[in-house]
TrEMBL record:
Gene Ontology CC terms, in alphabetical order: Golgi cisterna membrane; Golgi membrane
Residues annotated as domain Galactosyltransferase C-terminal: 153-230
Enzymatic class: transferase
Protein name: Beta-1,4-galactosyltransferase
One family name in Pfam for this protein: Glyco_transf_7N
Record organism: Camelus dromedarius (Dromedary)
Function: Responsible for the synthesis of complex-type N-linked oligosaccharides in many glycoproteins as well as the carbohydrate moieties of glycolipids.
Transmembrane segments: none
Record-listed E.C. numbers: 2.4.1.-
Domain Galactosyltransferase N-terminal: 30-149
Length: 317
């Protein structure tokens, strides 16, 4: 029998608080090896798991874009596999690499990699639900269900790096869940966001354009631990992304509405392109996304804990 504890308006599985309290202590095990994680998950085969006690209501694909963060990936796999198994999910874990970005010669394109993951995963299984998952976010609560609902779901309500608060009201990044049909309906992510930032705002606009409503779990449930790291080469912060609020002010009030700091001056000069992409979503979503995701598939490797997909993009910065 599963026992529950009441906390902050949510029922928590017995023992879940002790898991939360010790998560950060166990997260940074410097000597952790892939072989150890594999030994802890003997029922995961070629990146996939099927519960033995029941028939799962959904088949769930976990898509993780990855670049030069092997230790982060190892930490995530160590916690994610048991987490998913406790939820008795039938699932597969897909790690998607961008070849030139790994070498540092091209900017990282998280959104396009997730489009690739969706397309490639469907070649081997007609997955019902897709979880788009950053490699540096570890879920803290077993009640944060990795399954899809009748509306797109945003799972990262709070994380330790933001004091367990939502980053901003329209935030739709980090970890999101969309059904196969929902993601296809919006034509996936845009392929045009190179470097860090903007693609999750674009996806939110696509969702809203199709009259869907983003749902979230309770704050007590949707908590994550972020594995801190430096920004990768080729995945630098987009100065355009830093000025979303400032640019909104510019659009509404004109230049006089902006404080003329150096950052804002830079934003005025370069942010138009990024905001132009966001403001053109309603015109371009049909032609920019899954339907235009061109890539060269270099390899698909089946490791014990995940399926590794490596691709190259012909165009882009």
């Amino acid at each position: 029998m599963v026992r529950f504890t009441w906390m902050m308006g949510a029922l928590l599985p017995a023992g879940s608080m002790s898991r939360v309290q010790t998560l950060q202590e166990r997260l940074f095990l410097v000597d952790l090896t892939l072989e150890e994680v594999q030994a802890e998950n003997p029922k995961v085969h070629r990146g996939r798991y099927h519960p033995e006690e029941c028939r799962a209501s959904q088949r769930v694909a976990i898509l993780i874009p990855h670049r030069n963060r092997e230790k982060h990936l190892l930490y995530l796999l160590k916690h994610l596999h048991p987490f998913l198994q406790r939820q008795q999910l039938e699932y597969g874990v897909y790690i998607i690499h961008q070849e030139n970005a790994m070498a540092g010669s091209k900017k990282f394109n998280r959104a396009k990699l997730l489009n690739v993951g969706y397309l490639e995963a469907l070649k081997e299984e007609n997955w019902d639900c897709f979880i788009f998952h950053d490699v540096d976010l570890v879920p803290e609560n077993d009640l944060n269900l990795y399954k899809c609902e009748d509306q797109p779901k945003h799972l990262v309500v709070g994380r330790n790096s933001t004091g367990y608060r939502l980053r901003y009201s329209g935030y739709f990044g980090g970890v999101t869940a969309l059904s196969r049909e929902q993601f296809f309906k919006v034509n996936g992510f845009s392929n045009n966001y190179w470097g860090w930032g903007g693609e999750d705002d674009d996806l939110r606009l696509r969702v809203e354009l199709h009259k869907m409503k983003i749902i979230r779990p309770l704050l007590a449930v949707g908590k994550y631990t972020m594995i801190f790291h430096k920004r990768d080469q080729g995945n630098e912060v987009n100065i355009e992304r830093l000025g979303l609020t400032a640019y909104s002010t510019l659009l509404i009030n004109g230049p006089q509405g902006l404080t003329q700091t150096r950052e804002h001056q830079a934003v005025i000069g370069v942010h138009y392109l990024r905001m132009k992409l966001l403001h053109q979503v309603s015109q371009v979503w049909k032609t920019d996304g899954l339907s235009s995701c061109d890539y060269k598939l270099l390899s698909v490797d089946y490791n014990p804990l995940y399926i590794n997909i490596t691709v190259d993009f012909w165009s882009g910065p």
